[in-house]
Amino acid sequence: ADALLTISQAVKDDLSSIVGVSKEKIQSIDGGPFSVNTSPDSFKLIGRPYILCVSAPILHKNNIRAVRAFAQFNKDNNNAYDLLITSKFDNTIKQQLSGISDNLIFTGNVSDGTLQFLYENAESILFP
Q1: CB of 81 within 8 A of CB of 123?
Q2: How many angstroms from the chain centroid is the CA of residue 71?
Q3: Do the Cβ atoms of 119 and 52 come closer than 8 Å?
Q4: Nearest-CA neighbor of 116 among 53, 41, 40?
Q5: Residue 10 in contact with residue 16, Cβ under 8 Å?
Q6: Integer angstrom CA distances of residue 12 from 20, 32, 58
Q7: Which helix (H) or strand (E) holds 6?
Q8: C-alpha neighbours within 13 Å on the C-beta side of residue 50
Q9: Which residues, 6+ apart, have CB-to-CB distance to 11 below 8 Å?
Q10: pLDDT in tens, 41-64
Q11: Helix crossing, 91-98 with 63-76: angle to 10°?
Q12: What does the alpha-carbon distance between residue 106 and residue 94 come to, in Å, rounded to a whole number?
């Protein structure tokens, strides 16, 4: 691609530092209309190691496959992890995904600061 759009500065920084994409090719739209003011402090009380899945309730995000893969991984690791899934999902989709794994936490939409905190404190990132 000639250019990439990201939803936050944190995602832009991750694409650059982790994936190696040149920052000049990335334009952050800083959350667009979805940014909310969620405090990172609200996630400090999770108490268990978590895997972060930055997602949305749209088909190409592969949420069902992501949760199935997580459920198998978690089963193989004595159910030691929770999966934090960002974005706002309706109750129908939450119930469908929760039927695959009991260890899901739906964060809703989060601010850039909270997303950065979640990235920094995750055991791993699930990016299907």
Answers
A1: yes
A2: 16
A3: yes
A4: 40
A5: no
A6: 11, 14, 21
A7: strand 4-6
A8: 25
A9: 28, 54, 115
A10: 555 556 789 999 999 888 888 899
A11: 30
A12: 8
Q: What is the pLDDT of residues 92-113, one digit of tens each?
A: 999 999 999 999 999 998 888 8
Name which residue leads in pLDDT, 124 or 33: 124
Contact criterion met (CB below 8 Å) for 55 and 87? yes
Predicted pLDDT of residue 7: 72
CA distance 118 to 127: 14
pTM exceeding 0.70: no
Burial 96-120 (b: 16+ CB within 10 A, else e): ebeebbebbebbebbbbbbbbbbbe
Q: What is the pLDDT of residue 37?
A: 46
The amino acid that residue 93 corresponds to is I
Residue 13 DSSP SS3: helix
Strand order in the sheet with 104-108: 104-108, 82-86, 50-53, 124-125
